[in-house]
């Protein structure tokens, strides 16, 4: 089931990788997205009628599409800035994004919990507040493998970012106030848990070598989306075993009882094909059903990737009535559409 | 830009790969999709109100998700049957699908131009006609690398299948007659051209070894989605060079002039990440713009894959007023949504 082969990339110069990706996205959706005139690392929604809406701003390193750029649009993020592959954007770009996404009701910065991003967003928020913009910040920290219980605030943000954008973006679209949108973001995060497994590394174009190595017939449980070390190297589990292992760990961290409702994300880290995601989802759904937990609007696909890394992550997002309503609300971005009425 | 590493898969037993994929898809979308009671290789839409609509039926080998199963739903296919990885479904399963998708106005079988699929669909259509069902068949043959001009009917069907489903499915949803829907399908195909490049092979679970080999710093132009040999092995081109090479070949086969309008698909064969697709799209859009050809509703993503093969295909679908209207029409399947009004 495994063999050596080559990975090659269809790019131009590695140093143009990020900018050409941005140019391609704007070329594809010119009616919906634009780059900021004074900073071509800032992607903005062109949606009209946002006066009085809280702006949702995000950003982070490149190499994770659809995270981050793919979620700019109606009902999710209003603007996004990206850095080089796996590197934080500059604080100036973040401040530019915040200013461009202030529609008079303040801005929520919603991003993954990484040191560089936090440092830069903190500085950017200071700059924006100096300009009189109300700003709040919430960091997504859903990766249970990155720090133990009790140290949730040290955890990294991974695929759970997508639920955070969706639910917080819907709250903003409903014209909730900045403090209400921030409350929703915090509630999402307290109900959000992810664990990933990696089966092969990716190659950062500007580096040209794999982010990590992994042995034949092995997988790494808890690997981060930048190749951060996981918690255990395991033999290669089957799909059913992987689902069981992941849910055992997730449910230990986020106890659920019969009657609870969750949304589940089974996410490809890049090279893992959709067939494998559905085989995994089949096992995840069976385990949850046997515990009396029902699934609402599962998300199965490539939502948060690491270039061409093979592997998956599984996310649980526990829902209450408010979060369920917000998850159902419409959204329309190049990588996420939901047209429930 | 390239190194050896392992490919490993998250599956259970290889012989359950296809059935478990189907089970996972139905588990994920139980309100929208079901398996046929008497044949669990047949996936059907549960949409109501289809009386008097032409049924659109498709099928083919597994391993290409979202092709074929992913396009069953409103405005695209009504039913689909899949075989093992890269193998035709049985004619019995095809006949079962046709019978289940007859809503009183006949059924169009729309599938890729492969020998096994043609033989089995021909037999299935005979069976269905014996039961009094009006049936028409159209084979998609968009891969210009698989046979020269003048021998279009020998060409294989690849990512262009998605345009064929979309436009033909919209015609059926508009309650066009079987002969009208068939006419639309033929028109789509005469305006559809694809070429692919492969950068790495995939591994069929039941076989366990790569479908082909490719050298370091090389790419194969015209490779088929089952690893059929291409037309030339090239040094690894840049994204810009790849776009130019692909468009030179496509436009030689489908001459376009200034003022023409096309939809463009830049499709990942599996492991190629979205960043690379947008870098390519950027180059494709520039070349077309320079020729005065405008792009309508580009499709950029993983629409037709070969497991975890790295590579892309580029498809042009020339549009007239009717095809443009049909492309805009709503569609809603697990892998394709379009909610234009």
Supply database-style keywords.
homodimer; 341 residues; alpha/beta; Rossmann fold; Hypothetical Protein Tm841, Chain: A,domain 3; 30% helix
Summarize the model shown:
Two copies of one chain form a homodimer. Chain A is of the alpha/beta class and 341 residues long. The first copy, chain A, contains eight helices and 16 strands.
Number of strands of chain A: 16
> How would you state the average pLDDT of chain A, rounded?
94
User: What fold name goes in the CATH topology slot of the largest domain in chain A?
Assistant: Rossmann fold
Which overall shape of chain A is indicated by the principal axes computed on the Cα atoms? globular
| CATH classification class of the largest domain in chain A | Alpha Beta
Q: What would you say this structure looks like, in words?
A:
Two copies of one chain form a homodimer. By secondary structure, chain A is α/β, with parallel strands linked by helices. Chain A folds into two domains: 14-190, 3-Layer(aba) Sandwich (Rossmann fold); 192-320, Hypothetical Protein Tm841, Chain: A,domain 3. Chain A is built from eight helices and 16 strands. In chain A, strand 2 and strand 3 form a beta hairpin. The longest helix of chain A is centred in the C-terminal third of the chain and has 17 residues, at 274-290. Mean pLDDT of chain A is 94; it is low at 1-6.
């Amino acid at each position: 089931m495994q063999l050596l082969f080559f990975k090659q990339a269809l790019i131009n110069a590695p140093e143009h990788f990020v900018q050409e990706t941005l140019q391609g996205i704007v070329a594809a959706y010119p009616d919906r997205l634009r780059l900021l005139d004074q900073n071509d690392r800032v992607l903005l929604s062109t949606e009209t009628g946002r006066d009085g809406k809280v702006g949702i701003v995000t950003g982070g390193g490149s190499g994770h599409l659809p995270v981050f750029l793919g979620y700019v649009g109606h009902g999710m993020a209003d603007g996004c800035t990206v850095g080089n592959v796996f590197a934080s954007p500059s604080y100036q770009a973040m401040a530019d994004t915040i200013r461009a996404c202030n529609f008079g009701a303040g801005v929520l910065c919603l991003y993954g919990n990484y040191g560089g991003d936090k440092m830069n967003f903190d500085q950017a928020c200071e700059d924006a507040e100096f300009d009189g913009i109300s700003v709040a910040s919430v960091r997504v920290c859903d990766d249970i493998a990155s720090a133990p219980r009790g140290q949730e605030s040290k955890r990294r943000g991974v695929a759970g970012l997508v639920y955070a954008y969706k639910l917080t973006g819907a709250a903003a679209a409903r014209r909730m106030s900045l403090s209400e949108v921030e409350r929703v973001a915090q509630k999402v995060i307290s109900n959000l848990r992810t664990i990933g497994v990696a089966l092969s590394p990716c190659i950062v174009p500007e580096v040209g070598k794999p982010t990590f190595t992994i042995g034949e017939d092995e997988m790494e449980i808890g690997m981060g989306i930048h190749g951060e070390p996981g918690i255990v190297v395991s033999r290669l589990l089957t799909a059913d075993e992987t689902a069981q292992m992941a849910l055992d760990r997730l449910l230990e961290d986020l106890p659920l009882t019969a009657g609870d409702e969750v949304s589940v994300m089974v996410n490809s880290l890049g090279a893992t094909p959709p067939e494998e995601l559905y085989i995994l989802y089949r096992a995840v759904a069976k385990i949850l059903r046997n515990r009396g937990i029902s699934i609402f609007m599962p998300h199965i696909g490539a939502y948060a990737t690491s270039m061409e890394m093979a592997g998956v992550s599984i996310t649980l997002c526990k829902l209450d009535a408010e979060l369920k309503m917000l998850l159902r609300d419409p959204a329309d971005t190049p990588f996420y559409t939901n047209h429930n009425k």
